[in-house]
Amino acid sequence: MLYHVAGIMYVLATQINKAENELLWYSIIGLTDQYLHQYIDHQRYLEDVEQFKIDVLMKNNTSKSNEDMVDKIYVNNELHFMLLKHWSIYDSMYNSRFVAIRLGIWKTKGKRNLEMLFAKMGMPLEQAQQGYNNLPKKYKDLLFNKLEMFSSEFNLDGYTYPSFYKTSGFHRTVSAADMVYATTAHLESTYNVNKMVTSDQVMKNFWTAYDCLNLNKFDLVLKGFEEAMEIQKAIVRQAVSMIQKKQIVQLSGPFRYAIMNETADMKFFAHPLTLSKLAQFLVDTIIVRDSLNKSVSYTHLRAHETPE
Fold first, then answer.
1. Any idea of the CA torsion for 38, 239, 113, 144, to the nearest 10 degrees?
2. Nearest CA-CA partner of 99 in 149, 158, 32, 171
3. How many alpha carbons lie under 13 Å from residue 218 in its C-beta half-sphere?
4. Average pLDDT over residues 134-155
5. Cβ burial, residue 112 (10 Å; 0-12/13-18/19+)
6. CB-based contacts of 12, cutoff 8 Å, min separation 6
7. Is residue 89 within 8 Å of residue 128, measured between CB atoms?
8. Residues forming beta bridges with residue 49, ordered by sequence position
9. Model confidence, pTM
């Protein structure tokens, strides 16, 4: 049973025979949003994915009647590296919570480990720092072929998860995760920490995010990618600064609070979703640190606990 709103709407549409491929795609984005923002756990996500796989295969099969479909949805694994195909491999991994907290990128050793991973995979650092689209195919293949070999050594087990992609026209292919990042970035954009957020601004962001779901307006999708990258970099910068300056204070029991100093990045954290992402980054960091203090392997931090 699909319990997220997008899933419920899809179930209702199915019951009245109105569940078209586009609505299926929107529901998949809704599920992916729930997963990436940690509203559901990994097991629950896998259960819902299995339900969607059935409809995806049924509505997007390769029979002669469907071979001329311009828009198709298909199942494929996704890496826990944020916006990989729209960023550089290095920036995607460095700024992804999944990688950052496992390697401890706020420490010199953590950055060295990331560079060592590239070296062991046979990927020069200058290539890893190029935009993914400009990267020679042999290095793209290296990433996927070598990660499995070295993931355990660098505590990156569980670096993939099952997901969905959509092709639109003959040139555009996006993943459900990419669409989540783009649309939520539009929702988070143009907030000002020093000014009251107006209802007009909230509605403008909402309708921009709504239009972003339409792949025929791909300029909005690309803009969403750019904004998502800027927001994520601000989150990582803020988290690294707070960890290095020991601005996370433990109270009695499991309770903690964090102190944020005024910085140029404060404008990003006027939106509650961005602030929540920062908080989750810090929480996951504490989980890893406590695991290390108890001599527990990183792999005890399950993949679903840090999906970005």
1. 40
2. 158
3. 9
4. 89
5. exposed
6. none
7. yes
8. none
9. 0.87
- Give the tens place of pLDDT for each residue, 198-245: 788 889 999 999 999 998 899 999 999 999 999 999 999 999 999 999
53, pLDDT greater than 60 = yes
Q: Please state whether 246 falls in left (phi above 0), alpha (psi between -120 and 50) or beta.
A: left
Alpha-carbon distance of 91 to 263, in angstroms, equals 22
pLDDT (0 to 100) of residue 251: 85
On whether the CB atoms of residues 282 and 54 are closer than 8 A, the answer is no
- Residues contacting 272, CB < 8 A, separation 6+: none
Q: Report d(CA 295, CA 143) in Å as an integer.
A: 30
According to DSSP H, which parts of the chain are helical? 5-15, 21-36, 42-59, 89-95, 97-103, 108-121, 125-128, 137-150, 176-188, 199-212, 218-244, 272-293
- Of the candidates 253, 259, 308, which has an alpha carbon nearest to the alpha carbon of residue 280? 308
SS3 134: helix
Residue with tokens 């709407």: 9
Phi, psi at residue 283, to the nearest 5°? -60, -45
What is the distance between the alpha carbons of residues 132 and 140, in angstroms, rounded to a whole number?
A: 8
CA distance 154 to 100: 11
Query: How much is the pLDDT for 308?
Result: 53
Residue 156 identity: L
- Write down the residue that tokens 């990582």 correspond to: 236
Q: Is 3 helix (H, G, I), strand (E, B) or coil?
A: coil
Q: Are 216 and 255 in contact (CB under 8 A)?
A: no
Three-class SS state of 67: coil
167-176 pLDDT, tens per residue? 987 668 899 9
Query: In 168-186, which positions are buried (b, 16+ CB within 10 angstroms) versus exposed (e)?
Result: beeeebbbbbbbbbbbbbb
